[in-house]
Amino acid sequence: MRFMWWYIADQCSNKDISIIQNEEPNAGIPRYVVQIVNTCISDCAPTDIHVFCGWFASSPLVNPNYFKRLAYNDCLVNGGRPLAPGSVIQFQYANTFMYPMRFRSANFYVCTDKDISITQSRDGTTGIPLYSVQITNTCMSDCAPSDIHVNCGWFASSPPPNPNVFTRLAFNDCLVNGGKPLLQGNIIQFQYANSFMYPLTFKSAKFCRI
Questions:
Q1: Could you tell me if 19 and 51 are in contact, meaning their C-beta atoms sit under 8 angstroms apart?
Q2: pLDDT in tens, 50-98
Q3: For residues 119 and 135, what is the distance between their CA atoms, to the nearest angstrom?
């Protein structure tokens, strides 16, 4: 049995994509088993993973949702979908020789505090002023920041917002979405009543690491 293992050692993100091949005993045309693994311990899932693969071909064909040659030396993994941490794409191909395969490219998006947008506006009401707040995740990554905290002074309102949406834990520390992940493009929206507008700014969050 021949065994080959390519492990990418360029950037941290690239190191987490491993490609393993081995030949299976077969009386006819040689068969090879390929495993493409995301070994990253982060919650971030790389997308649009491409592999150098020469003129890759097989009979029978490999499921194109797993592995597909788009052009010379460019094969797409998992249909371009995210490859979750610990996930393995496995397939077999038949050929007279083993195709050398190695990592080509992928999208490793990282969200930062700049991707958490906080906007406020005053509603046109009489009596105690009423303010509308929107907290949005504008990041392009499929990895959702969690445990989002906001600087909020002595935030108070009557009636208070739903605590699963926005709640003050201590002075200048309000928790967003109950600490749950805020998915890409999702908006947390609530209203509060107060004699003045509280300055609300990003404080902290848990972002994906790559």
A1: yes
A2: 999 999 999 889 999 999 999 999 999 999 988 888 899 999 999 999 9
A3: 7
